[in-house]
Amino acid sequence: MRLFVDRAFQVVALAVLCLALMALGALILDVWQDGARRLTWDFLSGFPSRRPENAGIWHALSGSIFVILVTAALAVPVGVAAAIYLEEYGTRSLMAKLIEINIANLAAVPSIIYGLLGLGLFVRGLAMGRSVLAGASTLALLVLPVIILATREALRAVPPSIREASYALGATKWQTVWHQVIPVALPGILTGTILALSRAIGETAPLITIGALTFVAFAPDSIWSPFTVLPIQIFNWVSRPQPAFRANAAAAILVLLALLLTMNAAAIWLRDRYQKKLT
Amino acid sequence: MTLRPRARSRGFEALIEWALFICALLSIGTTAGIILVLAIETVAFLREVSIVAFLFGTEWTPLFATPRFGVLPLVAGTTLVSVIAMLVALPMGLLSAIYLSEYAPPRLRRVIKPVLEILAGVPTVVYGYFALLFVTPLLQRFIPGLAGFNALGPGIVMGIMILPLVSSLSEDAMQAVPRGLREGSYALGATRMQTSIRVVVPAAFSGITAACILAASRAIGETMIVAIAAGQQPRLTWNPLVPIETMTAYIVQVSLGDTPQGTIEYRTIFAVGMLLFLGTFLLNLASAWLRERFREEYG
Q1: Which of A133, A158, A185, B154 has the most CB atoms around its CB within 10 Å?
Q2: Whole-structure pTM value
């Protein structure tokens, strides 16, 4: 009897797990059914239109890519530098401990709060307007804690013997970090960074809050131009009652998911290469 | 690789350390910035609306001709959706965690964990689409009175979204329980289920609670699912079948319109944001404290 209950429990637990995985399957299947036939070259290279069958996503796709590149340019150097400080320099100070707690907390702040920060600080305070730069700065603050946490993890995995050997040869702290520690940790840092940026590329709420426009009919050409991104375009189409626009939303979701899948595959590929090298 | 002479590099070393420190300090600056931006506009808001009317008012109609600023309907909407999400995510997430930690063969774990990670990585706007155009129509077949916009559909989808968080953090906590406890239980003749439920879960309890609190905080702050699928009607109700509005969805609603800076409508989103920030902040703090305690027990 006891063994039967144990077996039944195992079956129930496995069923629940499968249910969760089935939800993922249903989601992808549903989106594919709704949107696959809209995936044409004209859709990818087209611009928004009042007529759903003429509408495209080039403005939003290029906006997403542009914003993410600027976000990376802002967040990666600062995030890696902060992680190096916390892991290699200020490990024992009270200030470092405080910063550490603070970063853990920031990572759990809802993304829409970052949107309000971006609205008050970048759009109004620093008068950047609703530009690519304001959006990318907001997203940079959002992903910074994630990049810092991932980079610290990568730095921690570097064996101490490498540092000691470098010191023994008379290298200074920075020379050790720059020439020895960073090259070894680089694949790990890259993996974490790509994963953090793939989270940023799907973010919608903070960009809506800073006022990224829902209807922009052109691709952004400088960091000062107004912009829209793929998730905002999806939101805009999903909010309309006409079914044809919802098919567009589904097709745009497929493009977004493909973009995310590519980034994640790149991250996993890097991680695997790195793990092989260590063994 | 050329090594600089010591004499020249000492100043350079100090400079580097300072630059790195400034970068690390930026995270404190972010927190300060959030609190400052929210506080400035919230104070300006509270100069026009009394704090009692804001916190305890039961009508939220800031865009009407005779505006009312009682935030309770938005708080109720957020609570309702979050409770539904937790009712889905807690049992399912815990069972998944127990299965993955105590039952699953290592090969299966290696396959399932990345798939669960994918579930956590799907953009929330996609989940919004799923809630509005798949889950709600599906539920309407069984629940005739269900409105097109409601709390139930988005709540369930949000539960699926935070399930991987509950499951992976709980599993980590269970994995940290020393093997000896399990072996002692098996030696007394307990089955795996008895060991899981009476030994492993109680031993990992503070870690599991920390995971659940973090998941609740995530549900409260989640925006796009509810903005798309829950409607935009702030109302004080526990009925999950009718349109409601959450705090986050309200911020989105106002942001979509072009609200000029300095007006009271503009300030409402910061006041609501402040409430949201404080709520999630307290939950995150509680979760971090519990995790710390758990680490001390078995670290």
Answers
A1: B154
A2: 0.87
